[in-house]
Amino acid sequence: MNTLLKSLGVVILLIGVGILALPTIMDIRDNTFLGVGLLLTILGFVVHIFLNKKFE
């Protein structure tokens, strides 16, 4: 369970990066995907740091 929680931040980060790549792949001209991807990337980075400090 601890391993799953420690990798939760990385999973959120990868989802954010995937959402950032989505407008390029689908040729979408909307900033909504970019904003959501940015927020998830930053959130995943912060969660990764917080959980690694808590469980180590």
Characterise the protein shown here.
By secondary structure, the chain is an all-alpha fold. The protein has helices at residues 2-6, 8-26, 32-55. The radius of gyration is 13 Å and the shape is elongated. The two termini are 13 Å apart.
Instruction: Report the total helices.
Output: 3
Q: Please tell me the overall pLDDT.
A: 91
- Kindly state the percentage of residues in helix: over 70%
* Order of helical and strand elements: HHH
Shape: elongated
Oligomer: single chain
| Helix-strand category | mainly alpha
- Please tally the β strands and state the result: 0
Please describe the biggest sheet, giving its number of strands, its sense, and whether it closes into a barrel. none
Strand content: under 5%
Q: Low-confidence segments, ≥5 residues, pLDDT <50?
A: none
- What is the end-to-end distance? 13 Å
Radius of gyration of CA atoms, rounded to a whole number: 13 Å
What is the structure about, briefly put?
With 56 residues, the chain is an all-alpha fold. It has helices spanning 2-6, 8-26, 32-55. It has 3 helices and no strands.
SSE blueprint and pairings:
Layout: H1 2-6, H2 8-26, H3 32-55
Helix pairs in contact: 2-3
Protein traits:
56 residues; mainly alpha
